[in-house]
């Protein structure tokens, strides 16, 4: 961790990336969207697109996971100026945790106010079905218990305070709005609200781990999102998180089920249209310009 600290990007490095992007596009996004595994189709619905491969953006890491295309797309979604990450970075790819969350501070410097963080997750809650969309109410940062928090290291006050609160990480108004929009779209049967737990991955959970996480109060488990949310809250972004339950976590020793990435991507494809409609309707209804 400390070796990596030496190469940590400074505030000025972040500015370089943000200014480069602002100089290359006329878009001025107020909403950022991170597409989870298999959910990249969401980005394709942006109108008037300006797209950058991660490899051409100064300081940007590269996507290495199947189902994460690796481009940053600017455009309008349902009339709102958005920027969309088609592909995110994960700790298990070998990136230090501050690099995983690097784009979040770029969004802040671009003028983004609200971030929609999506992911594919395993369903620990026994009432959840594959294809359910869980509005994230709260999270468990298990790697954080062992010191893996993206804010570890020197704090630059220009981004945020040393000790940010996380009791209000997932904005209550936006969660309410998501549930209302879900009802209006007739999606109530598969919209849930629950707690997301992050693990480092890349191995999926054992049966004992799934049982433990469920006892701890987690409804869904994944390998992303939480670090991004912590950094987003640190720099004052308003957050809404959405998990697509792509598989049921295996909780019984006589089960022959095994979680796998192909199933995760398949569920993403299967629910893509409704997921897109849900996010796009939500975006259309989000109030902007610090009106919160
Ligand atoms: O969280 P996202 O990026 O949606 O991806 C989830 O799906 C992958 C496992 O299939 C892991 O990367 C897990 O975190
Ligand atoms: N850790 C974890 N990540 C996932 N991403 C999608 N499904 C799963 C899962 O079952 N476990």
In words, what does this structure look like?
- The chain has 292 residues and is α/β, with parallel strands linked by helices.
- The protein has one domain: Rossmann fold.
- The N and C termini lie far apart (37 Å).
- Helix content is 33%, strand content 23%.
- It contains 10 helices and 9 strands.
- The protein has a 5-stranded mixed barrel with strand order 5-8-7-6-9, surrounded by 4 helices.
- Guanine (GUN) binds at residues 120-122, 199, 201, 204-205, 221-223, 246-247, 249, 259, 264.
How would you sum up this structure in a few lines?
With 292 residues, this protein is of the alpha/beta class. It has helices at 2-6, 11-24, 41-44, 97-100, 102-110, 142-145, 172-184, 207-215, 226-234, 261-285, and strands spanning 31-34, 47-53, 71-77, 80-86, 114-123, 133-141, 191-198, 220-222, 238-248.
Could you list some keywords that capture this structure?
single chain, Rossmann fold, binds guanine, alpha/beta, 292 residues, globular, binds 1-O-phosphono-alpha-D-ribofuranose, 10 helices, 5-stranded mixed beta barrel
Overall number of domains: 1
The average pLDDT is: 93
CATH C-level category: Alpha Beta
Q: What is the subunit organization of this protein?
A: single chain
Rounded to an integer in angstroms, the radius of gyration calculated over CA atoms is 18 Å
List the uncertain runs: none
CATH architecture: 3-Layer(aba) Sandwich
The percent range for helix content is 25-40%
CATH topology: Rossmann fold
How large is the count of helical segments?
10
Shape: globular
Structural class given helices, strands, pairing?
A: alpha/beta
Ligand identities: 1-O-phosphono-alpha-D-ribofuranose, guanine
Strand order of the largest sheet: 5-8-7-6-9
Largest sheet: 5 strands, mixed, barrel
Distance between the termini: 37 Å
Which superfamily, in CATH terms, is the homologous superfamily?
Nucleoside phosphorylase domain
- The helix/strand series, from N terminus to C terminus, equals HHEHEEEHHEEHHEHEHEH
Give the tally of β-strands: 9
How much of the polypeptide forms β-strand, as a percent range?
A: 15-25%
